[in-house]
């Protein structure tokens, strides 16, 4: 009887210990999210604040090409730094699911279909026993962004608003604040049009995944699938304000934190785990027909 009481007491202690560990992990997770969001919001506020100080302490400068160039350079260096800090914080905000982690994902069940960012059925560009190809890009979208950013600049140029005489007739502050938005929209428009094509290739024969660069200065990479991770990114089409559970699935090389590429599939962490498991099975199974859901996926392709 005494032995039984000791056993029950130890069992209760184990339960209490497990509960405390779970609560500790939850607190750590909440603190981690708060820290990441603080960094993101801080980097977002740092750029306009720095711009204000640059303008404020240089308001009596002469309007010359050199002074304007130095002002634009300083403002945009700070912007690039804040952008980099924000991207790193976003990278650290979401969990990473390694495709090499077979034990954790072996019990994950696959869905009958995937959802795109709008909640409709996601369509693969190609899915067969050799390759899966996802083209999360489009010429029409690129041209649209190019025009929407460059048309205002071309209109101002056509109507003679942007001329050396017009700019130099203003004060240094007015000239700088006039040129910065123009410079910004030109860069954003060119980036949207010239960025690498978002084409992700899962090759079953070579057991590799080809990930394009996210920025113009990055090259596409072909990696063994075990070296790739699945993570998340915010979904601007989410139906709820926080977008929780509707985040977009992202694929990335963990060694290149600025190179994550969105797949156009939504569903949050559950969908990310399911997609990771699907890619594992696709690469490892001898026959794709042994994946029950594969035939269903193969019928949902872009025509």
TrEMBL record:
Q: Which keywords fit this entry according to its UniProt record?
A: Membrane, Transmembrane, Transmembrane helix
Q: Which residues cross the membrane?
A: 36-57, 63-86, 139-160, 172-194
Q: What is this protein called?
A: Putative transmembrane protein
- What's the source species for this entry? Bacteroides finegoldii
């Amino acid at each position: 009887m005494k032995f039984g009481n000791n056993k029950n007491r130890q069992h209760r202690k184990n339960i209490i210990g497990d509960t405390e560990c779970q609560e500790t992990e939850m607190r750590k997770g909440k603190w981690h999210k708060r820290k990441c969001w603080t960094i993101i919001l801080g980097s977002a506020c740092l750029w306009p604040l720095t711009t204000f100080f640059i303008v404020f302490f240089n308001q009596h400068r002469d309007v010359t090409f050199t002074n304007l160039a130095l002002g634009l350079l300083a403002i945009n260096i700070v912007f690039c730094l804040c952008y980099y800090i924000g991207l790193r914080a976003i990278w650290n905000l979401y969990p990473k699911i390694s495709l090499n982690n077979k034990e954790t994902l072996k019990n994950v069940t696959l869905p009958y279909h995937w959802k795109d960012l709008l909640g409709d059925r996601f369509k693969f560009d190609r899915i067969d026993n050799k390759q899966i190809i996802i083209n999360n890009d489009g010429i029409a979208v690129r041209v649209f962004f190019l025009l929407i950013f460059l048309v205002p600049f071309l209109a101002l140029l056509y109507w003679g608003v942007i001329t050396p005489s017009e700019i130099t007739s203003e004060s240094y502050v007015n000239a700088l604040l006039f040129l910065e938005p123009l410079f910004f929209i030109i860069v954003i428009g060119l980036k949207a049009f010239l960025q690498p094509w978002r084409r992700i290739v899962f090759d079953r024969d070579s057991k590799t995944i080809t990930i394009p660069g996210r920025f113009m200065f990055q090259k596409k990479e072909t990696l063994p699938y075990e070296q790739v991770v699945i993570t998340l990114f915010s979904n601007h089409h989410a139906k709820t304000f926080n977008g929780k559970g509707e985040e977009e699935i992202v694929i990335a090389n963990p060694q290149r934190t600025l190179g994550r590429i969105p797949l156009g599939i939504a569903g949050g962490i559950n969908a990310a785990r399911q997609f990771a498991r699907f890619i594992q099975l696709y690469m490892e199974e001898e026959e794709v027909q042994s994946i029950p859901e594969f035939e269903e996926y193969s019928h949902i392709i872009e025509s």
